[in-house]
Amino acid sequence: WEMDSGRCFRIERRAFERNGLMILRQTTEIGGKLSFVFYVKVCNDPESQPIPVQSRDYTALAGLDNVPDNLGRPYPCTARDLDYPTKRDTWLDKNEAEMKKQKTLVSSHFANVCDNGFEVHDNPVGGPLSSAHVEALGKEHFEGGLHKPKFHEDGLHKPMAAGGKVYTTGFHYLLEAHELGGKNEDGGYGGPLCQDPYGEEVTRITENLLAQAEIDNTLAFNNFKDPCPSLTKEQVAL
User: Fold this and answer.
1) Does one domain contain both 56 and 69?
2) Domain named Luciferase helical bundle: which ranges (predicted)?
């Protein structure tokens, strides 16, 4: 539910096997249109033990049942907290000492590999964003570990200075900055589980999955043709 407008975004998730891979397809309806996101399960090893921290999310319904659909008709539903019937955040309440211990362990680990919130390494081609990258892009454009460029007061189409260099426009600066984002150690975007995520094989699988999703007529909510529920202005005001 979108709190300000009262609109409902409906989502369906479906898991299936394709070419020996476990695929999770998420279908999201926004503004009457469907978008698809695909997730691929690459390993059965969770690599860590789950921590039962409960969700802090609240429903926009705020406890309201049977809200109307977009045609004004009652939509049979019961508002529940995401963790119903379990009281939310009980793990945090009962395990404060464990949480502080984990925080200390993480802080001590990163103290040896980070500089001002950025990893320390000397690879100019790629890898995690480092202090050297930040220096080249202009330290004045980073705050609290986040990239917050200070463009010309007249907009991105005007020149800007960063890292001792003057860029023709803010767009030129962003192009250079984005070249560093997401690259691995050899300058590409792959990893040990998928060396070439933008290669021909992955592209072919993705395009096939998308084509199948487009013609699928077994989606939830009667293929998303059922009226979508929506809160009234009075309910949004609550």
Assistant:
1) yes
2) 114-179
Hunting for tokens 């010309």 — which residue is that?
152
pLDDT in tens, 172-209: 888 777 766 556 666 666 776 777 888 898 899 889 99
**Number of structural domains the chain divides into:** 3
Sequence-distant contacts of 49-58: CB under 8 A, at least 24 apart = 51/91, 52/91, 53/91, 53/92, 54/82, 54/83, 54/86, 54/88, 54/89, 54/90, 54/91, 54/92, 55/82, 55/83, 55/88, 56/88, 56/89, 57/82
Domain that holds residue 16: 1-47
pTM of the predicted protein model: 0.49
Examine the domain organization and report whether 37 and 67 are in the same domain: no
Residue with tokens 């009281």: 87
* One domain, residues 43 and 69: no
Q: What are phi and psi of 173, to 5 degrees?
A: -65, -45
